[in-house]
Amino acid sequence: MLSAFWVTIAVNGQTAFEKLETNKDISTVVVSQKMFQMLSKIDSKDAEAKEFMEVANKLKGMKIFTTESKTAAGLMKTEAQQYLKTAGLSELMRVKDKAQNVKFYTKEGKDATHVSELLMLVEPTETSRQTIVLSLTGDIDLNKISVLTKNMNLPQEVKEIK
Questions:
Q1: pLDDT (tens digit per residue) in 113-135
Q2: What is the C-alpha to C-alpha distance for residues 126 and 96, in angstroms, rounded to an integer?
Q3: DSSP string for 87-143
């Protein structure tokens, strides 16, 4: 019985967003901790680049999924909602108008300005058919999130987090 419990935990841990990665209608970007570590070792005299490298070195991973397919968008939303139920994230903020429908969720970090995970869900609106799920894990300083959005070409909605 106990071994079945551990197998269930292992499988659930491996499958977060796995369905999205294999869907042909969903574009996927996955960046590993090793890649962030490599980026943080680039030698630069530029202060902005150094700040980015400092932030990147604290990241464990990033997954970005995008689609304009209604069917794939439904799958993305379902997977995100299931993940939210099991991963212990809470809503940080949401923005909804004609141009955007964005929800941000976080998992607590070491203090009030740090989170261990940031999940962003962008749903289609009247003016945009695009659905985006972004998952960022590591020691994330919410005060420096703009450094990541600027240097990694992340969705503009992430800049709204403060």
A1: 899 999 999 998 888 889 999 99
A2: 11
A3: HT-EEEEEEESSS-EEEEEEEE-SSTTEEEEEEEEEE--SS---EEEEEEEEEEEGG
